[in-house]
Structures
1.
Amino acid sequence: MRYKLLGTSGLRVSELCLGTMTFGENWGWGATRAESRKIYEAFVEAGGNFLDTANIYTEGESEKLLGEFIATDRERIVLATKYACYTGQDNPNGAGNHRKSMVQALEASLKRLKTDYIDLYYVHAWDFLSPVEEVMRALDDLVRAGKVLYLGISSVPAWVVAQANTLVERYGWSPFVALSIQYNLVERTPERELLPMAQSFGVSVTAWSPLAYGLLSGKYTREESKQAAGKVGRLASNQFRFNGRAERDLTIAHTVQQVADEISCTPPQVALAWLRAQSQGIIPIISGTNASQLRDNLGCLDVRLSPEHLQRLDTVSRIPQDHPVDFLADEGTRQLVYGGIFNSIDTNRHAQLLNAIQKAEAK
């Protein structure tokens, strides 16, 4: 296990993050306390120090279990949790991004986790109601009070992070150093705005659901092809997970399986290796309902995909760019904007445009 600096901070976090949404059985499908401990211990034994939870995971049970597990190793662990989502309280201010929701959620998390501080505190989802000035000032107050060390945000438009981090630079407040988003071979839309924004601001990306809710785990591609049609139908009916794109998504899953077979590893390892190859700033959040699944995910650290395999995976999962990037990538537009010398300018500032050009030329 190697380590990365989190965003623009000096905080060292493991190159994989352990997601603990599966810790606890309150949702009817998670890991038992004993199995959760085995998962935690397997991750720590592999060198992992970066843990992710949230106040709503398994109705608070995830935080309680983590508090128990990290008690003797708190200084080594980089602990991330989140606030903003509804926890079932009969309270109009029991959710949202605003200061009251933030403070009461943090105090409750600290009690469940049995700790005095949170290493990385995420805004779990943007509510479009709370002023960004209120949110960032309130978060900075928590940092100054020593209850939170670093700040992150999840499930948010790119412009919100850009606005927030520009604002805090002006006032000397604490910035977001981490962005948590769904990113995988099936869901590549963050490449349009979120990833370029994160790169521009030096924000690390923690990628949740790197196996696309299990679609890339191999369980949809192990059976005989005659059963595939039935699986397509079931996937198509699952609008929450796959948004009606079942045939495309299953094709991606089959390609992942083929690559895994060719290099003698597992589909999750291929999917995670592809994700890690996209950028040094991306940290996959791995998880599982048992220690065996977790150890299999950890095996991605030993997988290096060849350029040919990366190209195959990119081709089958590629998405179109949106306006105006597709317009700006057009050769005619580049002639106008750069006066015909685009290819003679040496800079890394137009990385997003270069990526769009490469994708357009590959079609």
2.
Amino acid sequence: MTDTPLVPRYGDGALADVLPSVLAALGVPGGRNPLGLAPLRAACVLLVDGLGWRLLREHAAHAPFLAELAEGREPITAGFPATTATSVTAIGTGSPTGAHGIVGYTFRTPDGDLLDVLGWTTHGQGKKVDLREKFVPENAQPAPTALERAAADGVRVRLAVPHQFQGSGLTRAALRGGETSGVFALGDLAVAAAAALDADGRRLCYAYHGDLDLLGHVYGPGSLAWRLQLEHIDRLAATIAEALPADAALVVVADHGMVTVPEENRVDVDTEPALTEGVRLVGGEVRVRHVYAEPGATADVHAAWRDVLGDRAWVLTRDEAVDAGWFGPEVADHARQRIGDLVVACRGRTGIVRSAVEPILTRMLGQHGSLTADEQLVPLLVHRS
């Protein structure tokens, strides 16, 4: 078991560096190009949810097109936590977690709600409450997105995302600035991505596919169902590449990797009294937890969680995690307020579940979010026309 966390390489090798590099390659002024992308007229950034670097390399036979692109390349890091909500915002804004403030799958808002970022609703058992009016996405992440910056410079920006994400809180916070094409499956995703680039002038398309992540959660990463889905994604990427117009590129990335968390490795907050004493809220997800303590109880909660988890997790206070650079080189006030009093990142194949509050998440076999290489390392693959 590794003794040190893999801290994301913010600034020269993280998801937050992808769109700034693409914008620089498209000629948008004022940006940086840390990934060294050559000049382009058009680009499609395809995000494959859950396609970790190590998983791709291990199952290269099921993805010959992507595997060929990976030859001779090095992975980048996702960011922390290594989860969809945080990573999509890092891509869309071109900023690390501490700047954009979407600090996890779930976190506490200033009003004390536990926000489920993917649904932009309250989190937990019972009826979900839509928080888009109470916790306005454009205020939750107020900085201009990379897509807005591109559009302001005259780049035609399109999104090809599942139809249910149109107008979602996360889309408004992280990906505003482009025209949206709602898609239903692999076929129309390929059509929408190709159409977004098929015209004169500078063009940028952000495309997203999420089913590999879903199958990894349900059946486990590397399972037969997961591998067959990977084969379809490989064909998707090849199809988009074949349709690229002149002087264009397909850039394939992922938001995180994934590990298998067997039942015997799950620590259940809801059945372990020591983990709830002095605790107001538990956010995050199975591999990374934000623990919000009652006033004055942080030290006792810290000691209890360290005692229960031992070497199965890194258990840091908010200040320790910030000082360690987990959330980026700088952490804005609005982001700091959302981070738990404790930040707990699992090691090995450990998971911290909530069987009563999160029964579905608890049963999932595949999980992600922490600072291991399996979760942090993701591909950055470039195919040019």
3.
Amino acid sequence: MSKELRKITIDVVAVLLSVVIFWIPFYFVIVNALKDKKESSLLSLAWPENFQLWNNIKEVVTARDYMLLRAFYNSTLLTVLSIVFLVVLCAMAGFILQRRNDRATPWINFLVLSGLIIPPAIVPTIWVLDGLGLFKTMTGLVMVEVALGLPFCILLYRGFMASIPKEVDEAAIVDGAGGLTLFFRIILPLLQPVTATVIVTSSVSIFNDFTNPLYFFPGAKNATVQLTLYNFSSQYVTQYNLLFTDILLITLPPLLLFIFFNKKIVAGMTAGSVKG
């Protein structure tokens, strides 16, 4: 088999796998969101006889005193706050870890890597948050999301920082720039590719998070978009049309974000891995 034919075969197999793994389930969600209660209960891939999407959307949005709108607000606020802290903290940490080289550096790198390996502990985290008075608060949940996202984002920033020459730092210091001025006015703007990667990947992860809001931010008024799936599935046990409509509504924002910024994600990941 020639190299060109082998490459074409691999591409065809990859496309078919993506169709099976992603597009067929997504098509299943869309089709059943278009149906009424009776048709959707069959859970089939058949095209609906009567389109009820708009009615389903109205019923889902107004259910439980507009819970879905509150959930979108909570998830958006959680995502924005977490991303701001992640970008600033991880960019600073990546900058320092890449530039310094002393005895403490290997141990700090080990701690960062251990954050990717060691699983989070639910009960001790609840105990700590409750002791700080942050349990069931947005602040506490933001701290949890930031802590879980720190290791991966620090590694991305540290890898990308290797592509920025140290002469840039030295020139800025010679011109009289202090530490904060050097970082925020010179280094941080140069990190735009990897920052775009961090923003998109972390936004999708945090916006779609189910377990952390469930454990650390309980309560009907504190519901996030993923928790509405749990609530709808318990309220509408047999009304799959409403459940799939809810899935469709909360899937579209991160999906569109990922589609539009896909090239920037790849660019940031590639630069960090090759030059790091």
4.
Amino acid sequence: MINPLVSVAIPAYNHARYIEQCLQSVVDQTYPNIELVIIDDGSTDNTADKISAFLNRHQNRFANIIFESQNNKGVSATSNKAIALCNGEWVHLLGSDDLIHPDKIAHQQDAIKAWADPNLALVYADADYIDENNE
């Protein structure tokens, strides 16, 4: 069974407190073929350092990693740039303070395959909301 490349695009800005959990939720995906694209949007905390250290520890998990830092351009411009750098057949845009369930990408890819709709362009899922204290 062929698993198409799925890109996870993360625009990050001043989320040093959350970024490692966010990235760990991508590492923990049961889906095997993932590209990770992260743009640090001029964070003034140590978000970029945490991303670099995390990627060094987990670089073998991903089919491809793109990590760039830039001067602050805002979430929309940074999201668009991250998406433009993606090579995957599908792109998941993930906030740098968000988490995804371990089977999220696998379940969505199964649904896409089952639907077999050549016009399908967007898939979304429900969300659980947690606060800054993980509640």
